[in-house]
Specification:
- The complex is a heterodimer of chains A (201) and B (259).
- Chain A is an alpha/beta fold.
- Chain A has one domain: Rossmann fold, CATH 3.40.50.880.
- Helix content of chain A is 24%, strand content 31%.
- A seven-stranded mixed sheet of chain A has the order 2-1-3-4-12-11-10.
- The longest helix of chain A has 13 residues.
- Chain A is globular, with a radius of gyration of 15 Å.
- Chain B has 259 residues and is α/β, with parallel strands linked by helices.
- Helix content of chain B is 36%, strand content 28%.
- Chain B contains eleven helices and twelve strands.
- In chain B, α1 packs parallel to α3 and α8 runs parallel beside α9.
- The radius of gyration of chain B is 17 Å and the shape is globular.
- The two termini of chain B are 17 Å apart.
- Classes of the chains: A alpha/beta (201), B alpha/beta (259).
- Chains A and B meet through α1, β7, β8 and α5 of A and loops of B.
- Chain B: This is Imidazole glycerol phosphate synthase subunit HisF.
- Chain B: Its EC number is 4.3.2.10.
- Chain B: InterPro entries: Aldolase_TIM (IPR013785), His_biosynth (IPR006062), HisF (IPR004651), IGPS_HisA/HisF (IPR050064), RibuloseP-bd_barrel (IPR011060).
- Chain B: It is found in: Cytoplasm.
- Chain B: IGPS catalyzes the conversion of PRFAR and glutamine to IGP, AICAR and glutamate. The HisF subunit catalyzes the cyclization activity that produces IGP and AICAR from PRFAR using the ammonia provided by the HisH subunit.
């Protein structure tokens, strides 16, 4: 069973709708102890880095998730800001992230890209290696992005890269944790496929 | 590459999708949810729902259809109409909309844009602008209350000035409704959109005038907009989504293919 973490400031309804549609077993979770019943964790996040992190701190979820992922080895998928929390810090905020990846979330440089935020459907460049993209048709797969900050590309921690001015990790990953910068719950059939791949891990 | 977006717009009145010509004489197209579902399946990149009566007659509108839409479609959608406060916006976002779009209320209270930005972030704040080319003065002017012809009025603002102001206040996207072209299917207002594009550092969506597939090609290639919004060509079956996307891909425009 997947724990879908409700940090109070995310658009959790659309993810729940998609998981329901796919018949994927999940539980909405707000308290740390509820994570014990689950073998995987999804953390959605929209809004500012600090507001997501401080919400997790208030409920004690930050430490609980860290323990479940780092000590118990459960699979984790962060979405959007939930993906950025894998990093040590963000140019957007003052609070630290989980710090599982030695990276700093960076703002798109308005000198380099025509428009910020990066908003709309983009693809992941060929040659990706993420298990989340297993059996997807590279030519057709597109995902819906909506963000002003990104996880810098680093070969060691990247499961798929996208270029928007900068090259960034559309999927950051290491061991048992993943961060997807886009919104699979808004990415139609390819988003569904990704959730199914996560469930199958 | 980031794909250009094709965005069917569903004008909603009393819970039904309607379409008028130059904002008037609305005819009923159908129920909201099945239409939304149909477009998402057909390959639309995003949907916009405009409650066209809400701003002009000042009533509280039943928005329960937003929840129903969120339950059936898995592409982004935006809700516009009658959002006058932070609380209104929060309600719509909680019902599952990805973005909210404001138009007349932003003109009445520009600070609303600032407040929405601070509370929700710019990524979900869209500002709609109804712009009319005044041939006498040779200028583009902003109109408000365009959902109701009896109350439609010139705001006295120049479109270019308003475009700059809404960005400074934190709009994350601008939808420019070119009123002279709306519903007449003679093509998007390339001249105006190109002029506004130069002033616009957030995504710009063209609205008003789509009639043929070539109009989409022109607006993407000549005005460099991020998305093109259209209603009647889709509702009336004049253009099929797949045909349009296949055509635009052949024209070397970056488009998300219909799978």
């Amino acid at each position: 069973m997947i724990a879908l973490v409700d940090s109070n400031i995310s658009n959790i309804g659309s993810i729940a709708n998609m998981l329901n549609f796919l018949d994927i077993d999940f539980q909405l979770v707000t308290q740390p102890e509820e994570l014990d019943n689950c073998d995987k964790i999804i953390l959605p996040g929209v809004g500012a880095f600090d507001s997501v992190m401080s919400s997790l701190r208030t409920s004690g979820m930050d430490e609980a998730i860290n323990e479940q992922v780092q000590v118990k080895g459960k699979y984790y998928m962060g979405i959007c800001v939930g993906a950025q929390l894998l990093c040590q810090s963000s140019e957007e905020g003052k609070l630290p992230g989980f710090g599982w990846l030695p990276l700093t979330v960076t703002r798109f440089d308005a000198q380099q890209v025509a428009r910020v935020p990066h908003m709309g459907w983009n693809h992941i460049e060929p040659g990706h290696n993420s298990a989340l993209l297993h059996n997807m048709d590279e030519e057709y797969a597109r995902f819906y992005f909506l963000h002003s900050y990104y996880i810098p590309h680093d070969d060691k921690f990247s499961g798929g890269v996208t270029r928007y001015g900068a090259l960034f990790s559309a999927i950051a990953q290491r061991d048992n944790y993943f961060g997807v910068q886009f919104h699979p719950e808004k990415s139609h059939k390819y988003g569904m496929h990704l959730f199914q791949n996560f469930e199958a891990l | 590459m980031l794909a250009k977006r094709i965005i069917p717009c569903l004008d909603v009145r009393d819970g039904l999708v309607v379409k008028g010509v130059q904002f008037r004489n609305h005819e009923i197209i159908g129920d909201i949810v099945p239409l939304a579902e149909k477009y998402a399946e057909a390959g639309a990149d995003e949907l916009v729902f405009y409650d066209i009566t809400a701003s002009s007659d000042q009533r509280v509108v039943d928005k329960s259809w937003v929840t129903r839409i969120a339950q059936v479609i898995d592409i982004p959608f935006c809700v516009a109409g009658g959002i006058k406060s932070l609380e209104d916006a929060q309600t719509i976002l909680e019902m599952g909309a990805d973005k909210i779009s404001i138009n007349s209320p932003a003109l009445a209270n520009p600070d609303l844009i600032t407040q929405l930005n601070e509370r929700f972030g710019k990524q979900c704040i869209v500002v709609g602008i109804d712009s009319y080319f005044n041939a006498d003065s040779n200028t583009y002017e902003v109109y408000q209350f365009t959902g109701d012809e009896k109350r439609t009025q010139n705001t006295g603002k120049q479109t270019a000035d308003w475009v700059k102001e809404v960005q400074q206040r934190g709009a994350g996207e601008i939808v420019l409704n070119c009123m002279n072209q709306d519903g007449v299917r003679q093509g998007y207002d390339i001249a105006q959109l190109s002029a506004i594009r130069k002033l616009c550092s957030v995504p710009l969506i063209a609205s008003g005038g789509a009639g043929e597939m070539v109009h989409f090609k022109d607006v993407f290639q000549q005005a460099d907009v991020d998305g093109a919004l259209a209603a009647s060509v889709f509702h009336k079956g004049i253009i099929a989504m797949k045909d349009l996307k296949d055509y635009l891909i052949k024209q070397q425009i970056e488009i998300r293919p219909c799978a």
